[in-house]
Amino acid sequence: MAKEKVQCGAGANMAPALCFQGVTFRYTDDTPSAVSELDLAVLPGEVVALVGGNGSGKSTLARLANGLLTPKHGKVSVGGLSTGEPAHRWEIHALVGLLFQDPEDQIVGASVEDDIAFGLENVGVSREDMLRRVAQVLSVVGLEGEEATEPHLLSGGQKQRLALAGVLVLEPSVLVLDEPTSMLDPAGRTEVMSAVRTLASAGVAVVMITQHMEETLAADRLIALRAGEIGWAGSPRDFFLSGAYEAFPLGRPPAMELWHDLETRAGRVGTAHAPGDQALVVSEDDVVAALAARRLVGTTVGAGRGARATRPTPARNTATPDTAAFEGGGPGGVSCDGGFAVRLESVRMIYNRGTPFARQALDEVTLDVAGGAVTAVVGATAAGKSSLLQVMAGVMRPTEGRVIAADGGRVKAGSIGMALQRPEVQLFSATVWEDVAVAPRLRGLTDEALRERVEWALEVVGLPPHEFGARGPYSLSLGEQRRAALAGVLSLDPAALVLDEPGSGLDPAARRRLMEYLVSWARGGVAPATRRGVRTLVFTSHDLDEVAAYADHVVVLHRGRVEAHAAVEEVVSDVALLERAGLRPTLVSRVAARLGADGPRRPATPTALAEWLAMSASGRAGPAAEGEPL
Amino acid sequence: MSRSLLTLPIGQYLPGTSAAHRLDARVKLLATFAFLVALFAVRGWLGMGVLAGGLVVVFAVARTPAGYLWRGLRPLLVILALTFVLQAFGFPGRPLVQLGPFSLTEEGLTRGGFLVVRLGLLLVSSMALTLTTPPVALTDAFEWLLAPLRRVGVPSHEIALMMTIALRFIPTLFRELDDLIKAQRARGVDFSVRDPRTLSRALLPLVVPLFVMSFRKADDLAVAMTSRCYRGGWGRTRYRVMQFGRGDVVAVIVLGPWLIAAVTAGRWWGL
């Protein structure tokens, strides 16, 4: 596409807050340019979404904007000041606020207010001004009342808002956000995004690097980078509707994905852009509008056959019990032909008992984790998910109660495979192969048996041994590192695997790939299968769409108690239950609600939605569908 | 998600509004030093009793739960017990019990007991400081104390900032370490190694990831600090002000005679 001419001075229009003119940067002379010949102007109050694959130059661009890096050629200017001028250095640092992925690494102060004041202390603001500005920023990010709190006691969303406050207090005119929400749960993500929108409407220019395509839709402009150059620029909607996104290693927004799924069921693939059909669907709003319009003219989105092929879920495990068995609902209501993989009896977990910091994480938890099935544990932040997993895996002893393994004995550490959040940090060997070999070696495997086991584990997670075995763990992408770390657990050939947020921090594509490998392991789909019999997978997730796609059973935790334990269809369609537990319903469920499917139950999966639409179109619809029949 | 404090660092600050909490951190820091000096100058049980009694008053004023103190002290009991046994059996004097080449002596018993009480008071007094003083105030007080040394080239501001950052990251690294231990144990790695020669190898699965993580965090933090205009102590202003108030005057007036009484009491009564 034609290159726009970038004007950095105050022309006829508003002067840009941030301006790149023919900027080229390389880290060392013998590496290719990280950014080359880049032109970009961002106006005050404008929100620009910056997308692109790994190594496309996004993070370099962020550091160039702030003057942490200065260009080899070309010019970066902020409010008319060039970052190349050493005299402007500190002024530019203050004018351009940077926010990174992990809030933990940006917080300096030992308390919330001390951290916010850090930047002000650095530039020598008087104490009276400091008090005023700290108080002001606290209310902008909604952390009033937490002034004296130590940062490590905050939730993820609060931490990221604190990091944002630390940047805002310097009153920047430009805000550069480098994947600010990737480590947060949906609630934390909403908190941070709404704070950012408030700032933009107050005139701050925002450049937001993101992997979440639905977040780009809120931006005024989307810029897609490829190999340090602008590969596409324009409105976010056009990016997806024109199909331009296909040329980049990105996904499309989930709402667009859903629409495509529904269209496939109705046998209309490829007709979305055909003349006469004006349904241009990118966002959640679009799906609702398109479905509503279609109902008005009487055509329906049918529940087509063979639609399962488009779903990310592999065929469901035949061991899944009939939905009718779960009518009882309540805790411990699930039994299964495969017996239980782990049984918890009246488990209570209290941290720091007998101190003012005592906190109860689990309360009277009694449940059987069905053997041979995929169980998801969901709940809001601090509901006790991580504690439950660690107790299940035997690495943490509960304060009270018993944890029993399938053979009737107590669960011991090492008998169940476990990975905590961000397991890639536990990689420590020189090569991927060696790291995966650690566990089986400790179990006494040698030579051929060891080699077979390691290679099998690598195959399970989709890292072909001949390609990845000899590589150093730190040379892999984040998604590959994550899978290598999980291979290091799978190499124990455990009957059960418990994973805390396996997908957190990964981009949507890498996340989906990981979940598919794991579920296919659980379903026994990986040859050669070393273990005969059942495989059990337990994972926690904040994302109910993910849960709906991959789990058989769901345990809903709320403040340390089991709020429900039932088949996935039961749980995801039970809106009242989700609200009680502070969970965000699935995209389908949200769409259905806006189309008038109210009541305690709503369609929560694409199949259920398609059926509900078909029913309501033919006039037989009840107030709501009963979930997805098997 | 937050996994709460799995491991509480000993002497974690306990927020409060008591008179002990409100004291100027500089006064508390210097008082703790003075107390330590007195602790080692004290000669007899009477003096030790005066010191211990004073500490009890301090904790009563600060309203520290006794269970909490005990929790902090518990991990160190082994060291205290060991010290006692070594002294009791190792000190020459009138033998009470003979155990092979070792003999338990009367002098050893009293001396061991005295040493254990001294060490115990040392630990408890430092807890009195950290339990009632936020880390921020403590580092500020420390910086103030070091400030005169600036003239001879001691980077007092930088040292204080290093302390702040260390304090800020201790809970983080503790949690990461805790997770690592659990994760590697779930893979069958055994950390209960007795042989010191294989210990270093057994710790490799913890040390390597912890190092990599720390360096990455340090790097990110440096970038974040620079972009928030940090350029050393030059031209900096302070958000926190330290105020020497009426309570501090009272504390100093009470503290002086108390410590002097403790030290001199020992001179008269002797051991």
Short key terms for the protein model shown above:
heterodimer, A: alpha/beta, Rossmann fold, six-stranded mixed sheet, 21 helices, disordered C terminus, B: 271 residues, mainly alpha, two-stranded antiparallel sheet, 2 strands, 3% strand, flat
Which helices and strands occur, and which strands form pairs?
The complex is a heterodimer of chains A (630) and B (271).
Chain A: E1 18-25, E2 35-42, E3 47-51, H1 58-66, E4 73-78, E5 81-82, H2 89-95, E6 96-99, H3 112-123, H4 127-140, H5 156-168, E7 174-178, H6 186-201, E8 205-209, H7 213-216, E9 221-226, E10 229-234, H8 236-241, H9 254-265, H10 284-296, E11 340-351, E12 359-370, E13 374-378, H11 385-392, E14 400-405, E15 417-419, H12 432-442, H13 447-460, H14 465-468, H15 478-490, E16 496-499, H16 508-522, E17 536-540, H17 544-550, E18 553-558, E19 561-567, H18 568-573, H19 575-580, H20 587-594, H21 606-617
Parallel strand pairs in A: 3-8, 3-9, 6-7, 7-8, 13-17, 13-18, 15-16, 16-17
Antiparallel strand pairs in A: 1-2, 1-4, 4-5, 9-10, 11-12, 11-14, 18-19
Helix pairs in contact in A: 3-4, 3-5, 4-5, 5-6, 10-20, 12-13, 12-15, 13-15
Chain B: H1 19-22, H2 25-41, H3 45-62, H4 66-73, H5 77-90, E1 95-99, E2 102-105, H6 106-132, H7 135-146, H8 156-186, H9 196-227, H10 246-269
Antiparallel strand pairs in B: 1-2
Helix pairs in contact in B: 2-6, 2-10, 3-6, 3-10, 5-6, 7-8, 8-9
Quick recap of the structure?
The complex is a heterodimer of chains A (630) and B (271). Chain A is built from 21 helices and 19 strands.
How many strand units of chain A?
Answer: 19
Largest sheet of chain A: 6 strands, mixed
User: Any idea how many domains of chain B?
Assistant: 1
**Number of helices, counting only DSSP H or I runs of 4 residues or more of chain B:** 10
Taking the alpha carbons of the first and last residues of chain B, their distance comes to 56 Å
Strand order of the largest sheet of chain A: 6-7-8-3-9-10
Counted up, domains of chain A total: 3
Average pLDDT for all residues of chain B? 84
Which overall shape of chain B is indicated by the principal axes computed on the Cα atoms? Answer: flat
CATH superfamily of the largest domain in chain A: P-loop containing nucleotide triphosphate hydrolases
Helical content of chain A (DSSP H or I, runs of 4+): 25-40%
